[in-house]
Amino acid sequence: MFLKNCWYVAALDQELAHGRLLGRTVLGEHLLIYRGESGSVSALNDRCPHRGALLSKGRLEGDGVRCMYHGIKYDGSGKCVQIPGQDMIPPKLRVRSYPIVERGHFLWVWLGDAAKADPALILDLPYLRDPSWKGIPAYLHYKANYLLIVDNLSDFSHLAFVHTQTLGGSEEYAYVSKPTVIERLERGFRVERWHLNSDPPPFHRKVIPDKAAKLDRRNIATMTVPGIFNMETLFAAAGQGKEAASRGGAKEYRNCQFMTPETERTTHFFWSYLNNFEGEDSTVSRTLLESLIEGFMEDKEIIERQQQTLDEDPSFQMLGILADAPLAHFRRVLARLIDLEHSDGATQRPEARSTTPAG
Amino acid sequence: MFLKNCWYVAALDQELAHGRLLGRTVLGEHLLIYRGESGSVSALNDRCPHRGALLSKGRLEGDGVRCMYHGIKYDGSGKCVQIPGQDMIPPKLRVRSYPIVERGHFLWVWLGDAAKADPALILDLPYLRDPSWKGIPAYLHYKANYLLIVDNLSDFSHLAFVHTQTLGGSEEYAYVSKPTVIERLERGFRVERWHLNSDPPPFHRKVIPDKAAKLDRRNIATMTVPGIFNMETLFAAAGQGKEAASRGGAKEYRNCQFMTPETERTTHFFWSYLNNFEGEDSTVSRTLLESLIEGFMEDKEIIERQQQTLDEDPSFQMLGILADAPLAHFRRVLARLIDLEHSDGATQRPEARSTTPAG
Amino acid sequence: MFLKNCWYVAALDQELAHGRLLGRTVLGEHLLIYRGESGSVSALNDRCPHRGALLSKGRLEGDGVRCMYHGIKYDGSGKCVQIPGQDMIPPKLRVRSYPIVERGHFLWVWLGDAAKADPALILDLPYLRDPSWKGIPAYLHYKANYLLIVDNLSDFSHLAFVHTQTLGGSEEYAYVSKPTVIERLERGFRVERWHLNSDPPPFHRKVIPDKAAKLDRRNIATMTVPGIFNMETLFAAAGQGKEAASRGGAKEYRNCQFMTPETERTTHFFWSYLNNFEGEDSTVSRTLLESLIEGFMEDKEIIERQQQTLDEDPSFQMLGILADAPLAHFRRVLARLIDLEHSDGATQRPEARSTTPAG
User: Fold this and answer.
1) Residue B259's pLDDT is what?
2) CA C69/CA A305 separation, integer angstroms
3) CATH fourth-level superfamily of B7-116
4) Three-state SS letters, chain B
5) Do A306 and C52 touch (CB under 8 A)?
6) Mean pLDDT, range B41-61, rounded to an integer
7) Domain C9-99: homologous superfamily in CATH
8) pLDDT higher than 50, residue B223
């Protein structure tokens, strides 16, 4: 059961290079996503309505696509424009199309009621359109429900145990740092967490010259429905983090992650991890990309196994601890929105939120 | 739901060489097919009724087979003839046998009511027993329902798009050639299609000396229940195909294909592609075998993906175009025969058909 | 449907070496089995009750284990002893533990009512604790229900056909030898079988100096619920086996096999094959280990295929022969015990049995 009337990231722009016909399943629906020769982007149902052949195995022609089974051609809106050997085109022979919007390197689709697909509802993360923030958008596939990834990102104490050698740095993180602020939002939550006077974690140490100096680390994480995570990370010299005035030379990151359900048991995971200090050389971004993949693979292993556990033991009931308050709130928010959508009481438009960088 | 009271090709004779105990599932039933030491062919249920071990993992002894779990032996009719360490043989301990008939290189089985298994009902394709037609019988396994392959063979416009570089030759085939005759038969259909003044398609060009001359191409295809396809192909010099009198030097093919359900989702695909011009050298046959496998693999990719689509989206409804008239007729014919079989109104014998080469 | 109130072998001691956290499914329940730093052995449910992460992917700490997702720690009894970043431990946050007993090289668990888990109910096979019997405990995984392995061991005529080249020796075994005694026991059966004046079977020939002399072979097999097989094998010079007084120089084996359900379709198969003649050198034991694995792989192939047959043809009904009397009795005994357990009429304690070597 997914929230349908909202925007989901479905692809990265780099996945559509060179006229590629990208077959991608989103919320259980099979989509063909592609950039036509004019540059416009289309999202169509990925089945030729004639015999069910995949349009993503077809051929791009202009802004349309030809099915390469019997040669039937559709334009970018899904309208059939040619049947080889037949003059009359039956009106029912058309392919469903979906609203799709390109924002920076990300392509957002809307699988619900197309009449409600207002691009203004797309969550605006300002650093994604600010050239002073550098990063490399990337993708991973998860064999797990997207909410298990949301859960993972909702409690950063896991950094200490899952990512000790990569993104975390030490087990101390779980013991001495706690969320200082947990804010329940209408469409998600916001958590702030400090870790003072600590060693730089491995991913950060790799991209800074002084590997030994103690640092203050602050994470401000926001989660928004359906599964959009962004986190603002600051590393300042030890003792200087808490006071904004003293943060000269602080280094910051902006982590943008998008969890899009492929099916009930699989997820598309897109991200861009941005920094504000590398200048024109992409070495820092590429090093961070490697570090993030390394860390995400640690998450992926534990989360995919968690999905297997739930599949094996459908009666398994998780037991909450205090740190689960944000994820419990998020699941309630999402369940309420899905209920609203189904009861069709959702006559008012969902509300757009812009996230302003804190700090 | 399969038609049971009819003959299906279950194996090629070459598959039974050297006393091989061939385990093969046909219409969901697990068969052991083998040639006994006397030369006779048997088809038995492939489970020892004692503990369910596979008889196809057993040992050929004379015209019988011994289960190699506890050593119980059956003769070629399925009768138990020995239980090691036990004198009395219980009459219930026997294996079901199935009528099986060898015709040329093909073995036909009958899985329905054995009393109705008249060999005269086997479709007679005369070129399969005419030594002037040369070919190499072969086999492919499909992960798709057999009717999806029947569908594929019912509309040759797919040659233009699926087989452009192999069996088709050009996309023009779909636009300028159309079936000139579509004949609805009691147990299938017959379609005739001309393509005049065209380049030889790749599979034909490989086996003729003059690669450049334009040709007239005629295909006469017949489909017969349960899933037997034969096609008579003629290539004549351009301008001479239409008049039989002027066809000196025409080259002809006879394509015989047999689609036998393994299960609802998989198919045994047997064929022999015959030519009348190679003489005693088998180079032409072997070249054609390679070309056909190349082309069939193109079909297989698209058809197996079609099966996946149907499995993923059970509610998917195909939409017909004009070219689907033969396949729609065939599916109606088959559905009616299956209905008849189930209502047991099928008291009259199914009718045998002999296909005379058109000329 | 398994018998729950009884002991099952769940692991070999060698599997717990070096602090390994062994994840093992028994009767469909997911267990973590490990030896703590004090030497004691624990069996816990293998899911952290917080978010379902596997404890077997966690970290051994003393006699407890720490989940490496969010760092929650449990002691060897399953009690939660630490939640990083949280002082209060909710009493519900604990892991189920299971009675576990180490006997020789085998670890026995009890998955039913822990109050009934009396170690005196563990079947005592005296040769497993007698240093004059030598052997190497080993393990195989089967993709088949454990009762199909029990069936296999219940009729030794299969030695003749499945194991002709390994454990059996000749097909004659099935024809000239028969069980001389079949004893129905309250919790299983006992079968005695002689094969006189025969060649030594391959596994025995490999470990004796005189490869040619004829031998008398006696097998006394006992099967006990839930799936414990032990067999006493004697090879004496031909003509001397029947009379105990004349058996000087006889060589004996003790075969102990434990079939423990992993799931309804898979089995843990543990065994130790002991001999009384090798002295201090382990060459005989290692040679026998190889021979047994070779033979068991022959069983495994046929039994796993049998499981597939039952999965494919759920309506398949096996037909008994005379040799199936012991297995039929065993299945009745087991079914009755399971029924009793479910009707809760099982108020009296299950009875322990000690197997005395026959001689």
Assistant:
1) 98
2) 11
3) Rieske [2Fe-2S] iron-sulphur domain (2.102.10.10)
4) CCCCCCEEEEEEHHHHHHHCCEEEEECCEEEEEEECCCCCEEEEECECCCCCCEHHHCEEECCEEECCCCCCEECCCCEEEEECCECCCCCCCECCECCEEEECCEEEEECCCHHHCCHHHCCECHHHHCCCCECCCEEEEECCCHHHHHHHHHCCCHHHHHCHHHHHCCCHHHHHCCEEEEEEECCEEEEEEEEEEECCCHHHHCCCCCCCCCEEEEEEEEEECCCEEEEEEEEEECCCCCCHHHCCCCEEEEEEEEEEEEECCEEEEEEEEEECCCCCCCHHHHHHHHHHHHHHHHHHHHHHHHHHHHHHCCCCCCCCCHHHHHHHHHHHHHHHHHHHHHHCCCCCCCCCCECCCCC
5) yes
6) 98
7) Rieske [2Fe-2S] iron-sulphur domain (2.102.10.10)
8) yes
- Summarised one tens digit per residue, pLDDT across range C56-100 is 999 999 999 999 999 999 999 999 999 999 999 999 999 999 999
Q: Calculate how close chain A gets to C228, using CA atoms only, in Å.
A: 28
User: Residue C349: is its pLDDT beyond 60?
Assistant: no
CB A6 within 8 A of CB A108: no
Q: What is the mean pLDDT of chain C?
A: 92
Q: What is the mean predicted confidence (pLDDT) over C330-348?
A: 84
CB A298 within 8 A of CB A162: yes
Domain ranges of chain C: 9-99, 123-343
- Which residue ranges of chain A lie beneath pLDDT 70? 345-359
Asked if pLDDT for residue B358 goes beyond 80, the answer is no
Q: Could B309 and A52 be called an inter-chain contact, meaning their C-beta atoms sit closer than 8 Å? A: yes
pLDDT of the residue at C339: 96
Mean model confidence pLDDT for chain B: 92
Residues A211/A205, Cβ–Cβ less than 8 Å: yes
* Contact flag A157-C92 (C-beta cutoff 8 Å): no
Note the helical H segments in A23-134. none
Instruction: List the chains bordering chain C where 3 or more Cβ pairs fall under 8 Å.
Output: A, B
The two tokens of residue B209 are: 């000396």
What pLDDT does A280 receive?
81
CATH 3.40.50.2300 fits A124-343, yes or no: no
Of B157, B171, B306, the CB nearest to A52: B306
Q: What is the pLDDT of residue A184?
A: 96
d(CA B228, CA B232): 14
Nearest one of B330, B300, B61, B311 to B184, comparing CA atoms: B330
Q: Please report which confidence band the pLDDT of residue C357 belongs to, taking 50, 70 and 90 as the band edges.
A: very low
**Residue among B3, B15, B7 at smallest CA distance from B99:** B7
Looking at residue A355, the DSSP 8-state letter turns out to be: P
Mutate to test the interface with A, among C69, C80, C263 (most CBs of A within 10 A): C69
The class (CATH top level) of C123-343 is alpha beta
Q: Where are the alpha helices (DSSP H) in chain A?
A: 146-154, 158-162, 172-176, 202-205, 283-312, 325-343
Q: Which two tokens stand for residue A231?
A: 């986190």
Q: What is the mean pLDDT of residues C161-171?
A: 88
Using the beta-carbon criterion (under 8 Å), do B84 and C175 form an inter-chain contact? yes
| Cα-based distances in Å from A229 to A103, A265, A268 | 17, 20, 14
The nearest CA of chain B is from the CA of A266 a distance in Å of: 15
For B127-343, give the CATH class.
alpha beta
More confident residue, B332 or B351: B332
Which residue in this structure is represented by tokens 């189904």?
Answer: A342
* Lowest mean pLDDT segment, chosen from A210-224, B336-350, C106-120, C201-215: B336-350
Cβ–Cβ of B49/C155 closer than 8 Å? Answer: no
Are A127 and A133 in contact by the 8 Å Cβ rule? The answer is yes
Rounded to an integer, what distance in angstroms lies between the CA atom of residue C266 and that of residue C261?
Answer: 6
- C291-326 pLDDT tens trace: 999 999 999 999 999 999 999 999 999 999 999 999
